[in-house]
Amino acid sequence: MYKSLIIDDENPVRIAIRALGHWHALGIEEPHQASNGKEGLSCCRELHPDIVFVDMQMPIMSGREFLEKAKEEFPNTKFIVVSGYDYFEYAQAAIKNGAMDYLLKPVVEEELNKALERAVNLLNIEHHVESDHTDSETENDISPGNVIEIIKEYIDQNYCQDIRISMFSDKYFFSKEYLSKLYKKKYGYGIYEYALKLRMERAKELLRQPELQILEISDRLGYSNNNYFSKAFKNYYNLSPTEYREHL
């Protein structure tokens, strides 16, 4: 089934979209939710949704800013804008930044599900015809400094995935020890240390959302089981996830 995400700072709008969508009939899981573009971008990196609904006007990070970043990281995701403003510049910005549809609030059930159907049809076509592509980059010509920047960018976007230094040492023909040394010298953290830092900081953000179960947070951050996540969190903060929530 396809994954979906709703990004809107208005809870009633998120509830309406969730209630009106024919999710299971269209082969889509129940949607996850985020209240602003920054939170939505983190959710995209953790959940890798196939379909994303996004409002244009939100605090912290607007829909326009979100789309500008997300279209580069998630080129295959289908973005549907849901806005309370029928402004030409909003629609133009949405289309320019990769949105496939633009719906107006209040959300109409028929229009919502037509947009979902279009998104699912596109995803089905792309999945049917997709083929493996080889990376055209010439790994032998890339400098160690560039590799370090590539590693950091990869971790920033995939901190909830299983990250191994060998992924980069094998691809760019530098030893793991050499890359680890350069990374720590430039950024002040070891490669795994930096990935753990991002995971733990994100864990604290998710634990502040009481509707999320600790098991779900553990899964979103890439831990194989809840006990491993709880142990890692306690080692990092000297508090278990449950204790941290009790202290909030």
Q: What do these coordinates show?
A:
There is one protein chain. About 4% of the residues have low confidence. This protein is of the alpha/beta class and 248 residues long. Strands 2-1-3-4-5 form a five-stranded parallel beta sheet, sandwiched between helices. The chain folds into two domains: 126 residues, Response regulator (Rossmann fold); 113 residues, Homeodomain-like (Arc Repressor Mutant, subunit A), CATH 1.10.10. It contains twelve helices and five strands.
Give a summary of the structure in a few sentences:
With 248 residues, the chain is of the alpha/beta class. Helix content is 56%, strand content 9%.
Question: Topology of this protein?
Answer:
Layout lengths: L3 E4 L3 H10 L11 E3 L2 H11 L3 E4 L8 H11 L4 E6 L4 H9 L2 E6 L4 H21 L14 H15 L7 H7 L3 H12 L3 H17 L6 H7 L5 H12 L3 H7 L1
Parallel strand pairs: 1-2, 1-3, 3-4, 4-5
Helix pairs in contact: 2-3, 6-8, 6-9
